[in-house]
Write a structure and sequence with these properties.
alpha/beta
Length: 372
């Protein structure tokens, strides 16, 4: 009797595209199926189904989530050219910076005031000392005078507020010490982009049952027992936006609720000052296209476009393909780092217009009125 080895067949079938292209590399360079590591798995779809290239977004786009990836005038100019080619009207640069670091970054991008808008961070200096608050508020006001028009990306993955060099262990967004800063944001009309938790797969066991293991292992949080857990961080987010109804909050990355969009929807329904950007969670939502598309439909006024992935033209175009087309079962391991197959949402024009630009304009224009 011939026994069918499912695992070996899956590994062998992943090599079929190479055979179709003219054979395998020399045997010395090609590992045997038993030696292929999970982290090296790079599947390629062989389905003969429609493939749609989207070189330019269907409508003008405001990217509400990026960072100062371009260094120096030449790269910034290249970024602008790429934006023109793919249809990005403006990019919000979330510096998370204060002081001289914010000033230097702002100066770099100031040549293109209509194409880039810079947001600052919070100053956490002395957060664990009596009297914290007034100096941080003054620095926020100073950044506003320099040119900051929002705050972000603020980040708390469970251990406290942090963003790159700035860290405040044990200081969470709902802490009373944060209240003066968020109130000042409302007064100045500065929206707040906030990152809470991380994708749920980072909290799950790093074993054979974790379907996000390839990416989750790199960013794992399951081995950090002292942090606030995923659900607890969403509770902290809710307490924060409830406490500050006059402040506009944008939870980046779907508030890291890609696996439970229903919970995100309940927050939208309860808090009119709350939005979410879709940045860097295309791979987490594209495997569930029908449910995700229905979510975009239902909450069409609360989601904004974002990337969080630099300024490469191919990166923008894969996001457009997911949002605009009905393509099925394709991979993008270079951009997203996952092994999941992706699918298009085929969103209608009425949703794309809101997602790409109109919702962002509502946020940006509302803050101007608040600051007057």
């Amino acid at each position: 009797m011939i026994r069918f080895n499912c695992k070996r067949w899956l590994l062998f079938s992943s090599l079929l595209p190479l055979l179709a292209l003219g054979g395998l590399p020399p045997a010395a360079a090609q590992p045997s199926p038993e030696e292929i590591l999970l982290k090296d798995y790079r599947p390629k779809s062989i389905y003969r189904i429609p493939r749609t290239d989207v070189p330019k977004a269907r409508y003008r786009v405001i990217d509400m989530h990026s960072h100062p990836y371009a260094k120096g005038p030449e790269q910034i100019a290249e970024w602008v050219r790429n934006m023109d080619e793919v249809g990005i009207e403006k990019t919000i640069i979330l510096t998370g910076a204060v002081g001289s670091r914010f000033d230097a970054t702002y100066e770099q991008y100031a040549k293109y005031p209509d194409r880039f808008e810079l947001w600052c961070g919070f100053d956490y200096s002395g957060y664990d000392q009596p009297g914290y608050g007034p100096a941080a508020v003054k620095e926020l006001e100073r950044c506003y005078r320099v040119g900051a028009r929002g705050v972000g990306e603020l980040s708390d993955k469970g251990s406290g507020m942090a963003f790159r060099r700035e860290a405040a262990k044990g200081l969470h967004p709902d802490d009373a010490r944060m209240d003066p800063l968020f109130r000042k944001c409302a007064e100045l009309g500065m929206p707040v982009n906030i990152h809470v938790a991380d994708p749920i797969w980072m909290y799950e066991k790093m074993d054979q049952t974790n379907d996000g293991l390839m990416n989750a292992f790199e960013w794992r949080l399951d081995n950090k027992p002292d942090i606030v857990g995923h659900s607890g961080m969403i509770d902290i987010l809710e307490r924060t936006i409830k406490k500050h109804p006059k402040t506009t909050f944008i939870a980046c990355h779907f508030a890291n609720l890609s696996y439970d969009l229903t919970r995100l929807g309940t927050l939208f329904e309860k808090y009119p000052n709350f939005y979410a950007d879709i940045s860097a969670r295309y791979a987490e939502t594209a495997p569930i296209p029908r449910f995700a598309a229905a979510f975009y439909e239902k909450y069409r006024d609360r989601l904004v476009y974002g990337t969080d992935m630099g300024f490469d033209k191919a990166m923008y175009r894969i996001t457009f393909r997911i949002l605009e087309t009905a393509d099925e079962h394709f991979y993008e391991t270079e951009q997203f780092g996952y092994h999941w197959s992706l699918n298009g949402f085929n969103l209608p024009d009425s949703i794309l217009k809101r997602l790409y630009r109109d919702n962002a304009l509502r946020i940006l224009n509302a803050r101007k009125a608040a600051a007057q």
